Amino acid sequence: LPILQKYGITHIICIRQNIEANFVKPNFQQLFRYLVLDIADNPVENIIRYFPMTKEFIDGSLQTGGKVLVHGNAGISRSAAFVIAYIMETFGMKYRDAFAYVQERRFCINPNAGFVHQLQEYEAIYLAKLTIQMMSPLQIERSLSVHSGPTG
């Protein structure tokens, strides 16, 4: 607790699987705002579906001057995958670059193979989303009419 307070942590993302719920849990709910994700460290676990919620939680914290700790049981696979996804989308980075950025700060990260594959897939997803956000409504309408062909 003193270390979290020393670094000004205000929000915590707690990533665990159900069997870890007794020891990886929100212990100081009166002091921190928590986002708890029940996710197994399993290559077939779908983590992409949690990325938007996680990004919203982190962005909300940062916008109010907060600081976020992302943690799991070991801090090697699940939490690293979520930090990489956040870095990718927030800074428009490719998976390899975001991985290297996070690894420079925590050398032992090693997302499982399934998570790596999903992070690589997520690159195309967030880039498409970014492109749509940058397009004006007129550009989107033109793009849709070109792809749907003439009507009538």
Automatic annotation (TrEMBL):
It comes from the Eukaryota. PROSITE patterns: TYR_PHOSPHATASE_2, TYR_PHOSPHATASE_DUAL. Residues 48-106 form the Tyrosine specific protein phosphatases domain. One of its GO terms (molecular function) is F-box domain binding. SMART domains: DSPc. One of its GO terms (biological process) is negative regulation of SCF-dependent proteasomal ubiquitin-dependent catabolic process. Pfam families: DSPc (PF00782). One of its GO terms (cellular component) is cytoplasm. Residues 1-128 form the Tyrosine-protein phosphatase domain. SUPFAM superfamilies: (Phosphotyrosine protein) phosphatases II (SSF52799). PANTHER family: SERINE/THREONINE/TYROSINE-INTERACTING PROTEIN, SERINE_THREONINE_TYROSINE-INTERACTING PROTEIN. Belongs to the protein-tyrosine phosphatase family. Non-receptor class subfamily. Catalytically inactive phosphatase. Acts as a nuclear anchor for MAPK1/MAPK3 (ERK1/ERK2). Modulates cell-fate decisions and cell migration by spatiotemporal regulation of MAPK1/MAPK3 (ERK1/ERK2). By binding to the F-box of FBXW7, prevents the assembly of FBXW7 into the SCF E3 ubiquitin-protein ligase complex, and thereby inhibits degradation of its substrates. Plays a role in spermatogenesis. This is Serine/threonine/tyrosine-interacting protein.
